[in-house]
Amino acid sequence: QVQLVESGGGLVQAGGSLRLSCAASGRTFSRYVMGWFRQAPGKEREFVAAISGGGGSTYYADSVKGRFTISRDNAKNTVYLQMNSLKPEDTAVYFCAAGGPPFAVVTGPVSPDIMDYWGKGTLVTVSS
């Protein structure tokens, strides 16, 4: 079992930055692909970014490429999402998730359906 707890959300003006963190419990953290997803009001949950277990491969949604950076520190069982140049359309609840085949490489967008563990989310609000 893996438990995930997100933090770092809040209110920021357009053009600003936030850093989300996701702390994981469990000894097998480094086996999992970690992903960030988001869900805006009235919309479906969508993929944002993912990183492989060892951190060697990453993938981003086109909407955030060049502005967001995903990283992980396996010694701290934590994954991060650095969000720069935020836009009002980035407003959403951001979820951290873990899953996928053990030691998988990330080569494309990750479906929420393959993620086994989810945090409760943290709200990011970007004002114009």
General description of the model:
With 128 residues, the protein is mostly beta strands. The protein is built from no helices and eleven strands. The mean pLDDT is 95.
What layout of secondary structure does this protein have?
Blueprint: E1 4-7, E2 10-13, E3 18-24, E4 33-39, E5 46-51, E6 58-60, E7 68-73, E8 78-83, E9 92-99, E10 115-118, E11 122-127
Parallel strand pairs: 2-11
Antiparallel strand pairs: 1-3, 3-8, 4-5, 4-9, 5-6, 7-8, 9-10, 9-11
Strand proportion? over 45%
Rg value? 13 Å
Give the CA-CA distance, first to last residue: 40 Å
Order of helices and strands: EEEEEEEEEEE
H/I helix tally: 0
Question: Concise description?
Answer:
The chain has 128 residues and is mainly beta. Helices cover 0% and strands 48% of the residues.
Notable traits:
seven-stranded mixed β-sheet, globular, mainly beta, four-stranded antiparallel β-sheet, about 130 residues, single chain
